[in-house]
């Protein structure tokens, strides 16, 4: 194929990011002139090989379906923000952390791996729908850290309301904002540490693993409760399955 038949590296990266560890992750995608290990993270065990011969119509169709999914997540997050604002008159006093689903190639991806998911329902129809969406998946979901906001105070309230819910961890994303603002040291600070220490050791270690993936590196946040020798609020540079 000619040079004109090659897709831009940015688009290849976007496609790889959308389908990495998705239901299509075990398939080998083909794209002229690119390979997964040259545009992403060679130390990750799962690879999507991008080489010549791809049926672009099929690939773009899959990509469109992922974009529709992300747009739905973005809509739900916006609705969540509106719902939250109605409950708090002094919303300007609430510390906010940022979260947005995006279809553009992001500078930062937040990947959520749900090892065990329990379906939970709230009185709010919106919250129920939002959480039920995630409860249908066991693979990693991707969200982009950006400029939509979820207040920490609301996350803490939800944590107290349903402390045994695995799905609830998907809303406990204040850790992301802390990491972005203060780096690893921020993970050991209060009130963030207090929020996560409210959960049991097993719940934290086995229910949810959060890690932040930039274009250049992968950093894992292992959330611990400090009750055993191996348990501490740590971060690791590399995450392996």
Notes on the structure:
There is one protein chain. With 241 residues, the protein is α+β, with helices and mostly antiparallel strands. The protein has a domain at 91-236. 37% of the residues lie in helices and 16% in strands. A hairpin with a 3-residue loop joins strand 4 and strand 5. The longest helix has 32 residues, at 56-87. It is globular. The two termini are 35 Å apart.
Number of strands: 6
Q: Give the end-to-end Cα distance, rounded to a whole number of Å.
A: 35 Å
Report strand order across the widest sheet: 1-3-2-4-5-6
User: Uncertain segments of ≥5 residues (pLDDT<50)?
Assistant: 1-56, 86-241
Order of helices and strands: HHHEEHEHHHHEEE
Instruction: Find the structural class using helix and strand composition.
Output: alpha+beta
- Name the helicity range: 25-40%
Q: Characterize the largest beta sheet: strand count, sense, and whether it forms a barrel.
A: 6 strands, antiparallel
Beta content comes to 15-25%
Number of helices: 8
Q: Rg to the nearest angstrom?
A: 19 Å
The overall pLDDT average reads 36
Please tell me what the overall shape is: globular
